Amino acid sequence: MKKNLLIAFLLTTVFANAQCYESISFGGTHTVGLKSDGTLWGWGAGSYGQLANVNWTEPNAIPIGINTTWTKVYTGVRNTFAIKGDGTLWVIGSNELGFLGHSYNKFI
Which of 18, 38, 86, 103 could form a disulfide with 68 if both were Cys (CB 3.0 to 4.6 A apart)? Predict the structure, then answer.
């Protein structure tokens, strides 16, 4: 009986504290995760604005913006790409040669 209670307690604790990421994408020096609630979370180096903040390194996951309608996320070496529920594509990060069609940090 004690063994069953311990197992139930441990499983409940693990699932209650889970991060609930639906997908995770690894870039060159940053990582972005999409949680089941539609929010984006990022960690790592954001020196090119790929975490919506320039010249910043974050070892812990922090929210990227406040939008909750993201459905997919992809990372490049210096960029983060995300798709909203309405199908629109958004990008943040390096735009050194203008390939992204916008200036720095125009994501959310």
Answer: 38
Nearest CA-CA partner of 81 in 45, 23, 32? 32
CA distances from residue 45 to 2, 8, 103 in whole angstroms, order as listed:
46, 38, 19
More confident residue, 33 or 96: 33
Please choose, from the candidates 77, 83, 79, the residue with its C-alpha nearest in 3D space to the C-alpha of residue 92.
79
Question: Which helix (H) or strand (E) segment is 42 a member of?
Answer: strand 40-45
Q: Residue type for 31, please?
A: T
Structure tokens at 89: 């594509």
pTM comes to 0.70
Paired with 21 in beta bridges are: 35
pLDDT attached to residue 45: 85
Question: Given the structure tokens 């203008």, which residue do they identify?
Answer: 98
Distance of alpha carbon 76 from alpha carbon 48, whole angstroms: 11
CA 94 from chain center: how many Å?
Answer: 17
